[in-house]
Write a sequence for this structure.
């Protein structure tokens, strides 16, 4: 029984070199990956790197005076968070303030400008049939290029040019008749092809007297709409419900602004299941946005495209309207279902932005920017400087304590702290581009707190070794016997710390999550360092004469620890001696 036990012990003590080699290889690989990726420093949060703070104020929708409530505000925060995270912006904070304000903090970064553009965009998407359209304002005198709706746009342009010399009232009257005819065609398709219908409306100026007030209001809005002006475009269609006809503006493929009369929405953005940006290699369209509908949305889309396919231009087109602006107006020749795409002169960024907004849904409220503040990193830099000084003082005190109390053993503790620091830094640098981790002030605090957790693990192990020496064992057996007891204590202690960090990460938001994440990461690294570096290094040094013979500066001097010589290697070997003496 004794021989095999001795063999296992020798085998166990021959492994420390492998563990040390393993962790050193891991450090070298991670460090090499850090330099190869080009991310040699951790990404910084808004309090350290600076950025932009945006205050968004919710506005009531027409006909919905009680739309601003806690449920809708929380939903808006969730959607904004997902949009920003979908862009890969690290450490962005979105939170409510008061009843109707949302504060968005966006740190400096490659995608921070995109995030600012997206957070307040409502992204309400509707598919509406086109009733009539023409080039608007100053663009009406330009020659339109062929497009998906080139025939209708060319006809409208010619009408506009021919009436350029007419009085404004005559132009408004002709546009009003066009709107009336379009609405009649939308409600009674058979009438759209009847020349007599158009002729009667043209022949009798008093025909407009029979127009209902809603149609008259739409006629006036369409006649007055000048889409070449940004302030007019922003208000086009304000107050219109999805179930009502409306006017809107949009740009055609040649960059000209067009105005539209659109029918009631047939398909909404909520009917979209997923969206993505793809590059069209089959044509010169470039980047486009593809959309897949839900089962209900697919049926609606098939119904409206089947109806439009039977119409004449421009009433065989449907407009894809995003936040009141027409982003595309394709024509339809057959019934479609299942999926659709939005094509145009999109850049890659524009296509990805649109797909991102459609993917995560529309905001339940409309928002306006109340204030935009640039946050400088000066204050955060001062706080970081103070924090690093505090951390350095704390680390220095720990090192002084280790040197005074543990003497030679402090070399092992300091080396382990150094390894832990290297692993923490490298992982923080790699996790920035990998998962969007950003280092902020609370995260720095978490790293400083971790110094105490790591030092505590060394102290537990060293005290267990000293306890074994006090019982009369020599160093090498003392190390092997102390390790199982110290290991259990270290694992329980680190498990409690990690559990606290996990709970804190789950139940909190914003910067506090940075503290929890760093605390959890360093706790895991503490286990790795103690198992793969501290214990193997202690096993190797226990074979050295300086430690094995209990030098007065080794920290393991039996006399200073109160052990009584002669020292005993094992309890079993000493038992017969004690019995014989008795």
């Amino acid at each position: 029984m004794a021989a095999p036990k001795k063999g296992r012990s020798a085998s166990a003590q021959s492994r420390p070199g492998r563990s040390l080699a393993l962790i050193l290889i891991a450090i070298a690989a991670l460090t090499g990956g850090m330099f190869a990726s080009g991310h040699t420093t951790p990404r910084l949060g808004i309090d350290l790197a600076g950025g932009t703070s945006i205050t968004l104020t919710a506005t009531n929708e027409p006909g919905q005076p009680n739309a601003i409530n806690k449920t809708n505000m929380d939903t808006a925060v969730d959607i904004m968070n997902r949009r920003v995270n979908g862009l890969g912006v690290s450490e962005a904070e979105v939170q409510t303030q008061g009843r109707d304000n949302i504060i968005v903090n966006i740190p400096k970064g490659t995608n921070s400008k995109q995030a600012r553009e997206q957070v307040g965009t409502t992204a309400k998407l509707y598919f509406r049939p086109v009733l009539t359209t023409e080039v608007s304002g100053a663009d009406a005198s330009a020659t339109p290029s062929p497009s998906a709706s080139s025939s209708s746009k060319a006809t409208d342009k010619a009408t506009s040019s021919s009436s350029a010399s007419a009085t404004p009232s005559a132009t408004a009257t002709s546009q009003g008749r066009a709107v009336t005819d379009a609405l009649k065609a939308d409600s009674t398709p058979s009438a759209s092809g009847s020349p007599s219908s158009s002729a009667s409306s043209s022949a009798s100026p008093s025909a407009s007297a029979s127009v209902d007030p809603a149609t008259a209001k739409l006629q006036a809005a369409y006649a007055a709409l000048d889409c070449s002006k940004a302030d007019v475009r922003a208000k086009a269609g304000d107050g219109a419900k999805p179930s009502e006809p409306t006017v809107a503006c949009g740009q055609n493929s040649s960059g000209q602004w067009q105005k539209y009369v659109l029918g009631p929405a047939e398909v909404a953005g909520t009917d979209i299941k997923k969206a993505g940006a793809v590059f069209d290699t089959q044509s010169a369209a470039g980047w486009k946005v593809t959309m897949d509908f839900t089962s209900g949305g697919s049926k609606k889309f098939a119904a409206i495209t089947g109806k439009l396919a039977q119409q004449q231009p421009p009433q065989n087109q449907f407009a894809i309207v995003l936040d009141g602006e027409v982003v595309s107006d394709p024509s339809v020749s057959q019934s479609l279902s299942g999926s659709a795409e939005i094509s145009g002169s999109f850049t890659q960024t524009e296509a990805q932005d649109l797909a991102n907004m459609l993917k995560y849904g529309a905001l339940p409220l409309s928002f306006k920017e109340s204030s935009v503040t640039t946050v400088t990193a000066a204050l955060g830099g001062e706080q970081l400087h103070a924090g690093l000084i505090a951390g350095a003082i704390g680390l220095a005190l720990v090192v002084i304590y280790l040197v005074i109390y543990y003497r030679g053993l402090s070399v092992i503790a300091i080396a382990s702290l150094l390894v832990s620091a290297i692993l923490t830094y490298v992982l923080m640098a790699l996790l920035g581009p990998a998962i969007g981790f950003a280092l902020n002030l609370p995260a720095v605090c978490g790293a400083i707190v971790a110094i105490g957790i790591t030092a505590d693990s060394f102290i537990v192990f060293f005290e267990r070794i000293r306890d074994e020496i006090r019982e009369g064992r020599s160093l090498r057996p003392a190390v092997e016997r102390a390790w199982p007891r110290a290991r259990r204590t270290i694992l329980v202690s680190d498990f409690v710390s990690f559990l606290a960090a996990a709970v804190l990460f789950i139940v909190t938001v914003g910067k506090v999550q940075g503290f929890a994440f760093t605390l959890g990461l360093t706790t895991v690294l503490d286990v790795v360092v103690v198992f793969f570096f501290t214990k193997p290094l202690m096993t190797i040094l226990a074979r050295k004469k300086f430690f094995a013979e209990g030098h007065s500066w080794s920290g393991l001097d039996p006399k200073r620890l109160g052990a009584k010589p002669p020292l005993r290697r094992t309890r079993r070997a000493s038992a017969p001696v004690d019995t014989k003496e008795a």
